[in-house]
Amino acid sequence: SGRGKSGGKARAKAKSRSTRARLQFPVGRVHRLLRRGHFAERVAAAAPAYLTAVLEYLRAEILDLASDVARESKKTRINPRPVMLAIRNDEQLNKLLDSVTIAQGGVLPYTQPAVPAARRDAQAAVA
């Protein structure tokens, strides 16, 4: 029949922006959140892809450090505790997430510094 396109190339299967950028996190959702968050009047097309890549890198870095902490304490599962310890023991991540409270993360272990050497020597001389 004479209707529609005859022949020609079929349309390519749709690819998400996350797939095109080879990212796991959703670029479309980040774009929507940037627009609805009123951070700026307009949002560039590449901005959500860059932001998503940064978030994905941070996720990978934190999980890598947390898995090391969990392995050191002979645990097979990453809980909030190793995540918190990993963040607080890393100088840059600690600075970035300084005001963040991690639920069920506990506190950093702290041991009192040993008695100063001068006092220790004086006590040994008296005894």
Automatic annotation (TrEMBL):
Molecular functions (GO terms): DNA binding; protein heterodimerization activity; structural constituent of chromatin
Domain Core Histone H2A/H2B/H3 positions: 7-88
Entry keyword Acetylation: yes
Subcellular location: Chromosome; Nucleus
InterPro entries in the record: H2A/H2B/H3, Histone-fold, Histone_H2A, Histone_H2A_C
Quaternary context: The nucleosome is a histone octamer containing two molecules each of H2A, H2B, H3 and H4 assembled in one H3-H4 heterotetramer and two H2A-H2B heterodimers. The octamer wraps approximately 147 bp of DNA.
Family the UniProt entry places it in: Belongs to the histone H2A family.
Protein name stated in the entry: Histone H2A
UniProt organism field: Struthidea cinerea
